[in-house]
């Protein structure tokens, strides 16, 4: 069945970077894109960016200067990296599969709870 | 960027009542609206996708309607298991944008 499993740190120092790996199973990254979304009490659900099945990316303009998404199709892994984190980046970060024939997310990872604090 | 305004922010309904949640978008998005349910400690679950399409396995008491800028999500005959947060998501254009959410509780 379709699964997305996330791995990454729970605590990040201010001004440091966050890296999360999303390992997928039950589908191929050559056929499906993967979105990244975060959820914080203050700003609700926020779309961060997407890597399409062909490998191109689109980012939320608010994060474009400090966000990078890449993937390794052969390992079924998607890599998320956000730089220069501050306290207001504290949130749960999710990877989620783009549905086959429309842009919404149909399956989600379990989420990575990230706290930015010294 | 399309802004999505969701209302109400919270709702308290009795078992068996009809639940209605509304999302209004700042731009015309055709029928590219999606609806999610989120329970505590879990990621959002897609209930209804673009074109008011009920996802496989989702109970038929859930439905939605709307086109353009005005969208409505309905739960007929609320059950206790429907207690959750609900979100709308427009997928017509990037950046994808969510409504602010509705917290549904039992009266």
Can you summarize this structure?
Chain A has 118 residues and is an all-beta fold.
Description:
The complex is a heterodimer of chains A (118) and B (107). The mean pLDDT of chain A is 96. Chain A is globular and about 40 Å long. Chain A has no helices and 11 strands. In chain A, the strands form 2 sheets. In chain A, strands 2, 4, 5, 6, 9, 10 and 11 form a 7-stranded mixed β-sheet that branches. In chain A, strands 1-3-8-7 form a 4-stranded antiparallel β-sheet, with no helix packed on it. By secondary structure, chain A is mostly beta strands. In chain B, 0% of the residues lie in helices and 50% in strands. In chain B, strands 2, 4, 5, 6, 9, 10 and 11 form a 7-stranded mixed β-sheet that branches. A 4-stranded antiparallel β-sheet of chain B has the order 1-3-8-7, with no helix packed on it. Chain B is globular and about 35 Å long. The interface between A and B is medium-sized, with 22 and 19 residues.
Topology (elements, then pairings):
The complex is a heterodimer of chains A (118) and B (107).
Chain A: E1 3-7, E2 11-12, E3 18-25, E4 34-40, E5 44-51, E6 57-59, E7 67-72, E8 77-82, E9 91-98, E10 105-108, E11 112-116
Parallel strand pairs in A: 2-11
Antiparallel strand pairs in A: 1-3, 3-8, 4-5, 4-9, 5-6, 7-8, 9-10, 9-11
Chain B: E1 4-7, E2 10-13, E3 19-25, E4 33-38, E5 45-49, E6 53-54, E7 62-67, E8 70-75, E9 84-90, E10 97-98, E11 102-106
Parallel strand pairs in B: 2-11
Antiparallel strand pairs in B: 1-3, 3-8, 4-5, 4-9, 5-6, 7-8, 9-10, 9-11
């Amino acid at each position: 069945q379709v699964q997305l499993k996330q791995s990454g740190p729970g605590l990040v120092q201010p001004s440091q970077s966050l890296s999360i790996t999303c390992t997928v199973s039950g589908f191929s990254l050559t056929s499906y894109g993967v979105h990244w979304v975060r959820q914080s009490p203050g700003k609700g659900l926020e779309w961060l960016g997407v890597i399409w099945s062909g490998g191109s990316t689109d980012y939320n303009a608010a994060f474009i200067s400090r966000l990078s998404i890449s993937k390794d199709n052969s390992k079924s892994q998607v890599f998320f990296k956000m730089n220069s984190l501050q306290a207001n980046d504290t949130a749960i970060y999710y990877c989620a599969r783009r549905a086959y024939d429309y842009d919404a997310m149909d399956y989600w990872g379990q989420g990575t709870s990230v706290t930015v604090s010294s | 960027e399309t802004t999505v305004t969701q209302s109400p922010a919270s709702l308290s309904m009795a078992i068996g009542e009809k639940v209605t949640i509304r999302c209004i978008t700042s731009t015309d998005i055709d029928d590219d609206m999606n609806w999610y349910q989120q329970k505590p400690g879990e990621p959002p679950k897609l209930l209804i996708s673009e074109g008011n399409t009920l996802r496989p396995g989702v109970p038929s008491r859930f439905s939605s309607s709307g086109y353009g800028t005005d969208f409505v999500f309905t739960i007929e005959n609320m059950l206790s298991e429907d207690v959750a947060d609900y979100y709308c998501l427009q997928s017509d254009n990037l950046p994808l944008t969510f409504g602010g959410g509705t917290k549904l509780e039992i009266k």
